Amino acid sequence: xxxxxxIGCGGVAGVAIQKCAKCAETFEExxxxxxxxxxxxxxxxxxxxxxxxxxxxxxxxxxxxxxxTALIKKVQPDLVLNLALPYQDLAIMDACLACGVDYVDTANxxxxxxxxPKWRAVYEKRCKEEGFTAYFDYSWQWAYKERFEKAxxxxxxxxxxxxxxxxxxxxxxxxxxxxxxxxxxxLDCNGGDHGYPFATNFNPEINLREVSANGSYWExxxxxxxxxxxxxxxxxxxxxxxxxxxxxxxxxIESLAKNIPGVKxxxxxxxxxxxxxxxxxxxxxxxxxxxxxxxxxxxEIVPIQFLKALLPDPASLGPRTVGKTNIGCIFTGVKDGxxxxxxxxxxxxxxxxxxxxxxQAISYTTGVPAMIGAKLVMEGVWKKPGVFNVEEFDPDPFMxxxxxxxxxxxxxxxxxxxx
Length: 419
Ligand code: NDP
Hints:
single chain, about 425 residues, alpha/beta
């Protein structure tokens, strides 16, 4: 079928690329690119003997749109799968536009330096207008819609698990179970234990910024903000057990509020253990989560990047993590005039993932849907000029692919609701 260029070679990319390599009829050629060529080469070496796909590697700094453009011109891919960090989204989208190539990612744009006055002015205006203070939002990427339409290329945003699968679950629930969905609670439970007092399951910088920010939810047409970790609930998760979970702001709330007609409230909860929260609060209090440069012994360092260097590499957690994740959505709405609720979720086992691809379940649950999104666009199933969130396409082929590629899901009728 064609050629994919994957930018990024970290935990999520490692899984997505292995899954692409297993679909060599779609991904005949896979080019892996990041700033560190040796990491890309190591993955190429691991996979080469296991797949018919041709694997190549390149070096690129995706902060620079011109470098990505030059790489796309050289590699000539049909699609770019962006599995670098949210900081690179716009540069990679610019390069895709310049070259007329489809684009898929798993996380919405976030500025790396939140002290940059130019970015800050746009951000503060948005906080006032929209009513939420998260550093990331979709406006930056939705602004490419018309240009992607004109160029005849597809931009698929947020094809991970959350956002991604949770958004596809929402489209699927609406298509098959409801006339109108009124309430969505997205529950992200990680029941895994890696044995460290403190470590993050994916990129520490992105993870810690997300968790230390204000929470928020969508209700009756507007955002309601909360203090970080202000709203706590306890839920008994299938195959994991009872866990504390906290309300967070999360990016799919923004797109689902727009794309699920008639929705009255959308909340997102994530489970955290007390040790994680205590460490995080302490690191925040001493300034270790700062993203702006500070002077240290005559040179600039960014505290959160220094912290990242000290923490265990998320990719190294694979062999030590035991337990399961349970991520899904509880929907309440009406069908044929009657109120009803359903819960759609996936349970994923950390050790099973490790056996299959050498990663823990967090990278797995993101990497598999990234591959599926790219596959559907490459095969023309989800191809449409413009920029879209995953819930804007027919969910059925994605739901089938989840069952086929390792993330089977269940539908539970009349689940226990979150108060
Ligand atoms: P990692 O930190 O493990 O990997 C990031 C990769 O990006 C590295 O390979 C790095 O390689 C590369 N990279 C970073 N900066 C650049 C750059 N300037 N140019 C080129 N490559 C770059 O992160 P994860 O794999 O954990 O996460 C990947 C993405 O997935 C993130 O955007 C994250 O937010 C998202 N995510 C989405 C989830 C979802 O459910 N939707 C859940 C979890 C993560 P190098 O240093 O060699 O350049």
